[in-house]
Amino acid sequence: MATRRVILLPGDGIGPEIAAPTVELLDAVAPAAFEFEEHLVGGASIDAHGTPLTDETLAACRAADAVLLGAVGGPRWDTTDPSRPRPEQGLLALRKGLGLFANLRPVRPVPALYDASPLRREVIEGTSLLVVRELTGGIYFGEKTRTEDMASDDCVYTRAEIERIARVAFRAARSKVTSVDKANVLETSRLWREVVLDLHAREFPEVELEHVLVDNAAMRLVAAPRDFDVIVTENMFGDILSDEAAMLTGSLGMLPSASLGNELPPNHPDSTPGVFEPVHGSAPDIAGRGIANPLAMFLSAALMLRHGFGLEDEAAAIESAVDRALADGLRTPDLGGDATTAQATRAVLQHL
Ligand code: NAD
Ligand code: IPM
Ligand code: MN
User: What pTM, to 2 d.p., does this model score?
Assistant: First the structure.
């Protein structure tokens, strides 16, 4: 197997605590297949270089085959002063800099954890959905203004941006695409709806399409999550709905993500490197205690193998080792147990 170059960005808080065991797991699933190069990002990079993402780190990511990221942020760098750097800006600059417009967040509660969720088992059972979140547009990246007494964040979407993310969603659908917007209020959502309808009629008439307003989607996600297959939505709605959806799996510490920039096959020379990272953040409330759940990061590594490298068997091996470890009773504190990160890692390695 050719060596793949992976940039490892552990980041802040629990990031380094879950990144190290993920490297161990990848080395176990495909010995000598990966060459890791570690860089600072987020708060750690602010401390060292005064900026959350240096040009060198971005260039290294561009030149690599994939990027594996822990999490960024923490109280140490929290500020409301717009002139001071924030760790999160590093993550946004990385996504934008690599052109990663498509963020895939699969939500597949495993039977072993049905009773670990605050929702009832009957509600969750059989849920398997995919949130396709637009990642480089919308209110996150529009112009920002700030005076002493006023602030604004522009929300902008172009037809091309909407069409390319909708295409990702239709291609991923098994039965249905649910396009989530706020077309009863927002102009960007009205364009969103038009473009999705257009694309559906032209290229994907065989896929069922429904439009749901975001407030209603938030309700339906916990009332009848089985009704969803693929949810496609704009940047901020996707951010919020995916944390909500994570609780169907029992914990935010279970949800992986893949951020992709094009639809070329993984081994194509022009394929842009993806960023693979858990949906959760740096969890400052538990950082430094060795009790973070590493499974979201393990599952993100599996997505890297699948979407980044086309290594389907190895990806499935990680996913099934995670499933079996959970079936065997593995529970970190976020899932109601007392396993440490190291014990969770050992349990998964044993089942690999
Ligand atoms: P968070 O996701 O870090 O934590 C929310 C809650 O979930 C906390 O109680 C935390 O302990 C728990 N949790 C999250 N991941 C866990 C894991 N793997 N194992 C066990 N418990 C876990 O969200 P927050 O507290 O709102 O944000 C903290 C910081 O992280 C902020 O600076 C935020 O901007 C940043 N953040 C970064 C990312 C990222 O790097 N992709 C994502 C979200 C938030
Ligand atoms: C996520 C995070 C980021 C986002 C933050 C840290 C910028 O919440 O990856 O979901 O809002 O996209
Ligand atoms: Mn988020």
Answer: 0.97
